[in-house]
Specification:
Distance between the termini: 38 Å
Structural class: alpha+beta
Oligomer: single chain
Largest sheet: 6 strands, antiparallel
Order of helices and strands: EEEEEEHEEEEHEHHEEEH
Number of helices: 5
CATH topology of the largest domain: D-amino Acid Aminotransferase, Chain A, domain 1
Mean pLDDT: 93
CATH architecture of the largest domain: 2-Layer Sandwich
Length: 229
């Protein structure tokens, strides 16, 4: 297989049969050894993180596929820590879509003079350009369209799709006595131009609390999500 991209937490390969493959690493985003799903650098390496990320991603992708959401997920190999995905084209150099149910992390760092930490939010959707050099800056609808990253109407489409997908994930976590605080999604286009949910859906992309208000660490979260009833 041909290596296409070496990412912070995953590597992407061309399988040569029309599909791509993601390999999940044990690297996690953060700073100074502390995990942060919003960070744009590798902050720590944790044994089992790649397998946990793959397991959660498969769980949520299969759930979303079964309920009619379009994703790039095809199949997985847990032992090899790999996921087979459909080939897609990303928006620009990559567009991240964040859905926030609580004021935490970078939201408070930006707007701390206007909002108290942990304030409930009504599924606020933000979009950022993937750029390590620029610290993943926020971008608005007008700029996305002016730069040709999104076509007219696609911003609202992504916004609505994000809220629907995140509500489905939030509801599933709630059944497990877990609260989704925020989550980062990515989207792309397939060969026909359809918008698909891509990347991963793991503890590395979301903040989740238990019913006591404690933020659940990534590996523990994976165990709780994948726990057999």
């Amino acid at each position: 297989m041909k290596l296409l991209t070496q990412g912070k937490t995953k590597d992407l390969y061309d399988m040569g049969d029309g599909n791509y493959q993601l390999f999940f690493k044990d690297d996690m985003t953060g700073e100074d050894g502390v995990f942060d799903p919003g960070a744009n650098q590798v902050g720590l390496t944790v044994d089992g993180a790649g397998l946990a990320g793959l397991g959660m991603s498969v769980y949520f992708f299969e759930m979303l596929n079964s309920t009619g959401f379009a994703t790039h997920y095809v199949s997985s190999d847990t032992q090899a820590r790999t996921m087979v995905i459909k080939p897609i084209t990303v928006f620009g150099n990559g567009l991240e879509v964040i859905c926030r149910y609580r004021a935490l992390g970078s939201f408070v760092r930006r707007y701390g003079s206007l909002v108290q930490e942990d304030t409930a939010l009504p599924a606020v959707v933000e979009m950022t350009i993937k750029s390590d050099a620029s610290a993943d800056p926020l971008i608005n609808q007008n700029s996305l369209e002016a730069l040709g990253i999104l076509q007219p109407g696609e911003y609202v489409q992504l916004e609505n799709l994000t809220r629907d997908i995140c509500q489905a994930i939030k509801a599933d976590l709630h059944k497990k006595d877990l609260e989704l605080c925020d989550i980062k999604l990515e989207f792309g286009r397939d060969a026909a131009g359809n918008i698909l949910l891509i990347d991963e859906l793991s503890a590395g992309n979301m903040r989740v609390r238990d019913m006591s208000g404690r933020t659940v660490p990534p590996l523990e979260l994976a165990e709780l999500v994948l726990k057999k009833e």
